[in-house]
Design goal:
single chain; alpha/beta; Rossmann fold; 35% helix; nucleotide-binding; KAD4 kinase; ATP binding; transferase
């Protein structure tokens, strides 16, 4: 008998640590983490294992992306998790309703001042989407990617003058989405300034839904 699918989304503003949380969920619960860039290359370019992402069926739930998104897909026919970054608007949430019924929504609440600092210090490797933060997750060599040695860039919307506008836009768009999921009783909010302090609570929540393959201490 097939395992019951758990459909969940991770929500949070830019810089809130959605990608980090999803990577930890992937390791802890035996899922595979795919970045939005990889998802788009595989689904639009025709490469890769298309049975893994983007197709409806027993293996996983289809996922829609935006520029902040990444995806967690089942590495075995167990329990897929979609997100983070989608849905960011009420319209996207209603579109997702037409695809599947969510069981769980994780919302990351980070103070905006913390987010401003994080985003302004963020640099990325364009080809892979790997993200570095010059304050707490710098590259081994300043200005270059750890794996390829290629130059890092700062996105235009991560520049200090653009960050405040991005956060205001997210707050306005996300409020009705969060209220929608709260009204359905599936919203679980986690607040803090550090992912390492938020993560144990996320792990405990998911452990009540999915059998973990790693203990929290193994991270």
């Amino acid at each position: 008998m097939a395992s019951k699918l758990l459909r969940a989304v991770v929500l949070g503003p830019p810089g809130s640590g959605k990608g980090t949380v999803c990577e930890r969920i992937a390791r802890s619960f035996g899922l595979q983490h795919l970045s939005s860039g990889q998802f788009l290359r595989e689904s639009l370019g025709g490469g890769g294992d298309q049975g893994r992402v983007g197709e409806a069926g027993e293996r996983e739930v289809p996922c829609l992306m935006d520029e902040f998104g990444s995806i967690l897909a089942a590495s075995q026919p167990l329990t897929p998790i979609s997100g983070p970054g989608f849905p960011r608007t009420l319209g996207q949430a209603k579109a997702l309703d037409g695809i599947c019924e969510l069981d769980l929504v994780i919302s990351l609440n980070i103070p905006f001042e913390t987010l401003k600092d994080r985003l302004s210090a963020r640099w990325v490797h364009p080809a892979s989407g790997r993200v570095y933060n010059m304050d707490f997750n710098p590259p081994h060599t300043q200005g270059v990617d750890d794996l390829t040695g290629e130059p890092l860039v700062q996105r235009e919307d991560d520049r200090p003058e653009a960050v405040a506008a991005r956060l205001r836009k997210y707050k306005d768009a996300a409020k009705p989405v969060i209220e929608l999921y709260r009204s359905r009783g599936i919203l679980h909010s986690f607040s803090g300034t550090e992912t390492n302090k938020i993560w144990p609570y996320v792990y405990t929540l998911l452990s009540s839904k999915i059998p973990p393959v790693l203990s929290d201490e193994e991270h």
